[in-house]
Amino acid sequence: MVSLISNLEEHQISSQILGKKQLYYSLEVQEGERQAVDVLYVQDGEDYVRLGKLQDAWHDILKEEGRRDVHCLLILVPPSTSEERYHYYHPSGTHHDKYIHFFHQELVPFIEKQIRETGKDIRKKGLLGDSLGAAVCLALASEEPKEWTHLLLQSGAFNDFHANKIRNIETKTPWNVYQVVGSLEESVTYPLTGETFPILSANRTLYEKLQLIADHHTYHEEDEDHLWDFWRRDLPRALHYFLTKG
Question: Residue 136's pLDDT band (boundaries 50, 70, 90)?
């Protein structure tokens, strides 16, 4: 039985839409002989490695008894600054639309072309993010709902923009949605702007809307606050959902 977690590899893609070279990382996880690839795009990519202990989460998953035939490619996309993160991820950000277009028109086609050039097929295509990163995951999926199979949303900082996006999707989607939020996250202040997010109630509202259009939806409320320690401990469960559902 082949078992592998690759080294984290650093790459750049020249983006005409963003007007810059965008940094991203790749991490490949494989156990067994399956050739078809599950691709997971990760917002706040560096934070998921450093604070979310992403590689440790994968080691734990591969230790599970009975785990077989895993082949997952993670594409981790980090913003360069807190300000850039806001303007890419928040719907009021000055570059939010550009970031959405960059993902769909440049990054995803580039990654998928590389995969197919190796003779491999793509089986699942998912998005993972926390807070505003989860919010931009939902915005990305809402623009091209048929293109995504899995959304892993940790404490999403959603607002009316995202609720309206979901409301405007009139048909069922292929989405398998993993949604988690803390019961202590009702009033979370974003330090860069001072904006307060009612994250708990926003997630409850969105859960009701997502149930109407998602192929499958799982929702968890935990006795937790808006902290990386929460998302780190939750991450193995989220990744397990990506591997086993759909």
Answer: very high
Nearest residue to 150 (alpha-carbon basis) of 137, 165, 163 = 137
Please tell me the total count of domains within the chain: 1
pLDDT surpassing 80 at residue 44 = yes
Q: What is the CATH number of the domain that holds 19?
A: 3.40.50.1820
Tell me how far apart the alpha carbons of residues 95 and 15 are, in angstroms, rounded to a whole number. 13
- Of the two residues 34 and 56, the one the predictor is more confident about is 56
3 state SS for 178-202: EEEEECCCCCEECCCCCCEECHHHH
Which residue did the predictor score with more confidence, 102 or 61?
A: 102
Domain that holds residue 41: 3-244
Return the bridge partners of 130, or none: 154
pTM of the model: 0.96
N residues, the chain:
246
Q: Are 122 and 115 in contact (CB under 8 A)?
A: yes
CA distance 88 to 96: 4
